[in-house]
Amino acid sequence: LRSDERSRLLLGNLIDPISGRTSAFFSTELRLSQTSIDFGTNAVCDSVEFVLRFNGPAYGFNQPQYLVVEQLADTLSIDSVYYTIDRPETVPGNLVVPSAQPVQMHPLESVYVGDDTLSPQVRILLDPLFGQGLIDADTAVFSSNDAWRAHFRGLQVRSESIGGIVSLEPNSGVSFLRLHYHN
User: Fold this and answer.
1) How far is CA 98 from CA 94, 141, 153, in A?
2) What angle do CA 102, 107, 111 make, to 5 degrees?
3) How far apart are CA 54 and CA 56, in angstroms?
4) What is d(CA 54, CA 37) in angstroms, rounded to the nearest whole number?
5) Nearest to 122 by CA among 179, 168, 60
6) d(CA 130, CA 32)
7) Strand-pair partners of 166
8) Residues 6 or more apart from 120 whose CB is under 8 A from it?
9) What is the pTM of this model?
10) Segments of the chain scoring below 70 in pLDDT
11) Cβ atoms of 61 and 164 closer than 8 Å
12) pLDDT number for residue 163
């Protein structure tokens, strides 16, 4: 099946008594929301959140899942065709904070952050050392999305748990990678 330029991302694993195991994972690149980012002097990463809004149906049970998030070893190309059999090479090393596992997967439940009620979403906490590496990058990395893509090629997200497949929105304003830092 062709899998590039999707409007929905599927994530998870499911065992169907008739068709057997179905695994869904995705690889994605991330764009800068603005260029010429300045983190100031002596910026220290406190945390990194990778947030994706749920979008559409879920299959199977929506249980918490142990996720693996790895950096892509090479860039994705908008001009290329990708299929579900393709698995882009990654840099080994799970970026998900171990204490944040398993990750909650509740596509029908709102998320509460302080006094704010947010749309249903999966929030994946990533290693602050990964975030520090992004903060410490040369300022030229943040001059354009082309320079950013050359430096940070993207992420691959997969589940190691059996229990369900969820549908995620890759293109909305509530799907993002956010660095929290202080100076």
Assistant:
1) 9, 29, 23
2) 75
3) 7
4) 29
5) 168
6) 16
7) 11
8) 53, 54, 106, 107, 108, 109, 110, 111
9) 0.88
10) 1-7, 77-85, 172-174
11) yes
12) 81
